[in-house]
Design brief:
Layout (H helix, E strand, L loop, with lengths): L9 E5 L3 H6 L5 H22 L3 E8 L7 H24 L3 E5 L7 H14 L6 E8 L1 H18 L9 H5 L12 E4 L18 E4 L9 H12 L9
Parallel strand pairs: 1-2, 1-5, 2-4, 3-4, 5-6
Helix pairs in contact: 2-3, 2-7, 3-4
Length: 236
């Protein structure tokens, strides 16, 4: 059982390997994405059981627009279905839902459902589930710098007063704690332009399992591995 006093407050997850999971079974890539949605449901339940406060899923990157249009359309359809079916369940379970990323570039129907879901669950006090949609960390940091520059001009702010904490307030993740633990599936060992600023002191956990094979027990194993880490934050 997980020690409630020594668990990651915020877990970020790069859900990788859907396509390769399907290919290895002789199936179209969309079967992997469909199975991956089921894992999101399962990991959300596991996070609640573990006592995690926030879980962020890297669902669609800014670079994913370079994929074949047919696959993008399938991903958007799955996302639309997720927002339609899962938000009601999340709301009933006191889960707060939030999206980070350049959402204005998403299809209009997706934008509408994102706004509705965030508004509907805004006052919930349980687990916060975050989807990173059309998200790229470098773009996020550039946009944050532009926002500060505009504020500096319009509000006559002093550039010298800007520090890391204030700059964080201009990021998509404003109001969210930085992740304590990053999980990436599929055996890849890179962060892929995901939460570059926010992961500065996170612990990393890599597994060879593809995302559709990553179950609740695997999540708990990652949490247990985190508990064994010594986090010094630059100290002794």
């Amino acid at each position: 059982m997980t020690d409630k006093d020594n668990i990651p407050k915020h877990v970020a997850i790069i859900m990788d390997g859907n396509g390769r999971w399907a290919k290895g079974r002789g199936l179209p890539r969309n079967y992997g994405h469909r199975e991956g949605v089921k894992r999101v449901r399962e990991i959300v339940k596991a996070a609640i059981e573990a006592g995690v406060g926030f879980v962020t899923f890297f669902a669609f990157s800014a670079e994913n627009w370079n994929r074949p249009q047919k696959e993008i359309s399938i991903l958007m359809r799955y996302l639309d279905n997720f927002l339609t079916r899962e938000i009601t369940s999340m709301h009933k379970n006191n889960i707060r839902f939030r999206v980070i990323g350049a959402t204005r570039q998403l299809p209009v129907n997706i934008q509408d459902k994102v706004r509705e879901a965030q508004k509907k669950t805004a006052d919930n006090t349980g687990l916060t589930v975050v989807l990173a949609l059309n998200y790229g960390s470098r773009q996020e940091i550039v946009e944050a710098a532009k926002k500060f520059a505009r504020d500096a001009i319009s509000r006559n702010l002093s550039v010298q007063d800007l520090d890391a904490e204030k700059f964080s307030g201009y990021l998509y993740t404003c109001g969210l704690p930085d992740p304590d633990l990053l999980i990436r599936t599929s055996g890849e060992m890179r962060v892929s332009n995901f939460l570059l600023w926010q992961l500065s002191y996170a612990e990393f956990y890599f597994t060879r399992k593809f995302w559709p094979d990553f179950k609740a027990d695997d999540f708990m194993e990652a949490v247990e591995a985190y508990k064994l880490r010594e986090r010094r934050f630059g100290g002794l």
